[in-house]
Design brief:
Layout (H helix, E strand, L loop, with lengths): L47 H14 L4 E2 H8 L3 H13 L3 E7 L7 E6 L5 E7 L3 E8 L4 E8 L6 H20 L6 H4 L40 E2 L15 H5 L16 E8 L3 E2 L4 E2 L13 H9 L3 E5 H11 L16 E6 L3 E7 L2 E3 L29 H10 L3 H19 L3 E5 L1 H5 L1 H19 L8 E3 L6 H11 L10
Parallel strand pairs: 4-8, 8-11, 12-15, 15-16
Antiparallel strand pairs: 1-3, 2-3, 4-5, 5-6, 6-7, 9-10, 12-13, 13-14
Helix pairs in contact: 1-3, 2-3, 8-13, 9-10, 10-12
Length: 493
């Protein structure tokens, strides 16, 4: 194994190759190039790639932490390079000591861990009839949450106002925004380690979602926001002075509405597609053609004054699952290399595709329109304008209470997808699935099992599982649109 030092020169930058790196797949640079690299590369100017490698390993190590020696071994960086990176991370408040661990020889090794409360992101899921928003810390733990009824067709100004209200209330509750300089004073629950708050989802009827203050679907977005059942913050580390400047404040325009939350990295928004993820512009959102051409990202950035990323609900959920390791196949560098399809059945039906640990969006970021594959040429009309789409057939079966038929239709679409892409795993999520998880998991699995028997394969059927995260999955994934690049997680193509 060749190793490089902290002052090594860069060769082949931008192509994913470099000197002194070890073989193997590594996550892409946090700068957002999306190119994979072979392990750690000590770059002179853009140090974010190696920092992202180290940060991701600190994240996945959890509270137990990881030693500098292990970091060097798993990234391919020299111990000197790792020491420089970890010293910088500790100085910025992103990492701290987690104790000492006995070594085979010499003095005990110092173990480091991530400081979850050092950074936060907001994630908003805009469904056709409700809004769910979460504030998460660096390890993805939910610090605060809001839900409210929403009419996605009520007009851009109404929807933007609801998003802004949720974002500002969450920042005030979870970060103490408006109550003083959080970064320098250590005020607020998230300065105390991020506030461990994982509320249980309580699925109800297919349109009902989880618990919380919630009105009727389609209520025009005028409902009362209500916090979910969140545990009180656990005392922990004080966020050091200057941390906000190193993470969030450099990217924040002056006069920000959320300026009192210096650890906030930004806002991720996930909603039904199709849309342009790169430009943050909506297309003809299925059932709501009036959104066609609307620059949602730019409008929210002007309104809130923080960075905003927009993506399809299914892609956001898939990203959150990939970052959490739901697809399996984690390599020694911490990056998952599995492939899976996340099928989301709620008020609509779509898919998020993950190949090699990265979300696949396609050349025009339009991949995953799973619900609009036609499986019955003379079938019922769909809101997309076609007839016999999987979505139309599946939702019609749900509406008449025939969950077995809904699961069979969903399984037919999943079998088509598995045959076309040869994926490793199918994960099911969304409010409708959450209301009857056993019926959908078993029903979809039965169709895939039948397909595997017909083909006579020796590996068995593609497994079908319930996606972790419950009805929060999309909102948490939306927050990962901001957090994942910090840890070098690949965006995919």
């Amino acid at each position: 194994m060749n190793r490089s030092n902290g002052g090594g020169s860069r060769i082949g930058a931008g192509t994913g190759t470099g000197t002194g790196t070890r073989t193997g797949t590594a996550v892409a640079a946090a700068a957002g190039t999306g190119a994979a690299a072979g392990g750690g590369a000590n770059l002179l100017a853009p140090r974010s790639h190696n920092t992202a490698l180290v940060l991701d390993l600190l994240r996945t190590a959890g509270a137990e932490g990881i030693s500098r020696l292990e970091l060097a071994e798993r990234t391919g960086l020299t111990p000197q390079a790792v020491s420089k990176i970890t010293a910088r991370l500790r100085g910025e408040g992103l990492a701290t000591e987690a104790g000492r661990r006995a070594s085979t020889g010499g003095k005990p090794r110092t173990v480091l861990r991530l400081v979850p409360g050092a950074g936060h992101a907001l994630g908003v899921h805009l469904d056709r009839d409700e809004l769910r928003a979460v504030l998460v810390d660096l390890d993805g733990t939910v610090v605060a949450e809001r839900r409210a009824p929403l009419d996605l067709g009520a007009g851009a100004e109404t929807v933007l106002e609801e998003v802004a209200r949720a974002a500002e209330e969450l920042a005030a509750e979870g970060l103490g925004a408006g109550a003083g300089p959080l970064a320098s004073e250590g005020a607020g629950p998230c300065a105390a380690g991020g506030g461990r708050a994982e509320a249980a989802d309580t699925p109800g009827t297919p349109g009902g979602g989880g618990s919380g203050t919630f009105g009727t679907p389609g209520g025009g977005g005028s409902g009362t926001f209500g916090p979910e059942r969140l545990e009180p913050p656990v005392p922990g580390e004080r966020v050091p002075e200057g941390l906000g400047t190193s993470l969030a404040e450099n990217a924040r325009p002056p006069g920000s509405a959320l300026a009192a939350a210096p650890t906030l990295l930004g806002l991720g928004v996930a909603l039904p597609g199709p849309l342009d993820h790169v430009r943050g512009v909506l297309h003809r959102v299925t059932g709501f053609p009036e959104w066609d051409g609307y620059p949602l990202r730019d409008a929210l950035e002007r309104r809130l004054g923080v960075p905003v990323v927009v993506d399809k609900d299914t892609n956001a959920a898939a990203l959150g699952l990939a970052v959490g390791g739901a697809g399996g196949g984690a390599g020694e560098d911490g990056a998952g290399d599995g492939s899976f399809a996340y099928l989301h059945l709620g008020t609509g039906l779509g898919a998020g595709l993950v190949f090699g640990g990265a979300v696949h969006r396609g050349a025009r970021t339009g991949a995953g329109e799973f619900g609009h594959q036609v499986v019955q040429l003379d079938g019922p009309p769909c809101t997309c304008g076609a007839r016999g789409c999987v979505e139309a057939l599946c939702l019609a079966a749900v509406a008449r209470g025939d969950l077995a038929e809904a699961a069979r239709v969903l399984g037919t679409g999943a079998a088509n997808l598995a045959g076309l892409l040869d994926i490793d795993l199918v994960l099911l999520g969304g409010r409708t699935v959450a209301a009857a998880p056993q019926a959908f998991v078993q029903g979809v699995a039965a169709v895939l099992d039948a397909r595997a028997r017909r083909e006579g394969g020796h590996d068995g059927a593609v497994p079908v599982r319930l996606a972790p995260g419950g009805t929060r999955g999309v909102a948490k994934g939306a927050a990962q649109l901001l957090l994942a690049p910090l840890f070098g997680r690949r965006e995919g193509g």
